[in-house]
Design goal:
two-stranded parallel sheet, 35% helix, 4-stranded antiparallel β-sheet, globular, alpha+beta
């Protein structure tokens, strides 16, 4: 009787291919693998010391793990990093206030989180340890953009956004940290920004004082989403007609001519998010926006923003808001 040879263990290359194939089957349009070696230390320290994190004190608490991502999940040594497109479409011309494109749909943390959990399960099926395999969607101390560049998915542009040369910057970044021994991809080392400074010049508040330096204290996205409490007159005037977030530096980027629409139905733009009402109570907010990114600033934050939007809106949009 012939004895059957034991099946050879999968190689690191085979496991990496299987992991990235699983990510693509789940709908992610790009996937790569990187290690969790320390990130360049001084850049984050200088950024924090300069006060550029504003009131985001969690950035200080997370600094050590952001610099050393291997400390985030005990036993993890690899990251499977994925990208997912969101809508690059034009905003409504008659909107009373503007909303960043990534918030035009159901909260991406929920949408990507569901699929990322399934990707983590796929890695466990390939041999990863459940306790050392954990998904992250723009949460925790994960330095997503640095890991994405290290995984070969794009470069970090002058506006600090990751640019995928095939898709532009209108993408979400997510990852699964794992102890599975995966072959890593070559990092993306080219810088295709060249001499272009369109994003720097497009920022109306000077929040990009130098290439790849973001001063959150001046950033419209920070002010409308993360900033708590009332605005100073200068802060309120700075947000203009932005109710939530800002896309100006991305709109100026020539690489976004390659941006494609989302394929996930849950990431399709919703009219009430592209052109939101500026008047609502808590019950209306919960019913209309409870599954969206608007819950981050909440009713109080959006009401504060809206009060400044009204004074900044173009006449046609201001009339529409008043009529509503």
């Amino acid at each position: 009787m012939r004895t059957r040879k034991p099946r050879a263990a999968a190689t690191a290359d085979e496991l990496a291919r299987a992991a990235k194939d699983a990510a693509r089957r789940l709908g992610f349009h790009a996937a790569g693998v990187c290690d969790l070696a320390p990130i360049e230390r001084d850049a984050l320290r200088r950024w924090l010391d300069a006060g550029h994190a504003a009131t985001m004190t969690y950035m200080h608490r997370q600094a050590a793990r952001r610099r050393e991502p291997a400390r985030i999940v005990a036993g993890a040594r690899r990251a499977v990093v994925v990208l997912e497109r969101y809508s690059p479409g034009p905003p409504p011309a008659d909107a009373a206030a503007r909303v960043a494109r990534y918030a035009w749909s159901e909260d991406y943390h929920r949408v990507l989180g569901d699929r990322l959990a399934r990707l983590a399960q796929a890695l466990v099926a390939l041999g990863a340890t459940p306790g050392a395999t954990r998904p992250y969607v723009d949460a925790g101390p994960v330095p997503e953009r640095e890991l994405a560049q290290r995984a070969g998915l794009g470069w970090i542009a002058k506006n600090t956004m990751l640019i995928d040369p095939r898709q532009g910057s209108y993408t979400f970044i997510a990852s699964v940290l794992t102890d599975l021994e995966l072959a890593v991809d070559a990092p993306f080392t080219a810088d295709h920004c060249g001499r272009c400074r369109a994003c720097l010049d497009a920022c109306p508040t000077g929040a990009l004082p130098a290439a790849r330096t973001l001063d959150a204290r001046r950033c419209i996205s920070y002010l409308t989403i993360e900033r708590r409490g009332p605005f100073s007159a200068a802060e309120g005037a700075a947000i203009g007609d932005w109710l939530f977030g800002c896309d100006l530096c991305q709109e100026a980027c020539p690489w976004n001519k390659f941006a494609g629409p989302p394929t996930d139905p849950r990431l399709q733009p919703r009219p009430e998010l592209m052109s939101p009402d500026l008047d609502f109570d808590q019950a209306t907010f919960d019913a209309r926006y409870g599954d969206t990114c608007f819950t981050r600033p909440g009713v109080a934050g959006l009401r504060r923003n809206a009060s400044w939007n009204r004074s900044s809106a173009p006449p046609r949009a201001r009339r529409r808001a008043d009529e509503d």
